[in-house]
Amino acid sequence: MSTLKKIVAIGPESTGKSSLCQALASHYGTLWCPEYARDYLLENDNNYLEPDLEVIAKGQLALEELQTKEAERRKDPFLFIDTDMYVMKVWSEYSFERCAHFILDQIAKRRYDLYLLCHIDLPWTPDILREYPDLQNRQELFRIYQDLLEQQSVPFVDITGGNFERIKPAIRAIDERYLNEK
Question: What are φ and ψ of residue 10, in 5° steps?
Answer without folding.
Answer: -135, 155
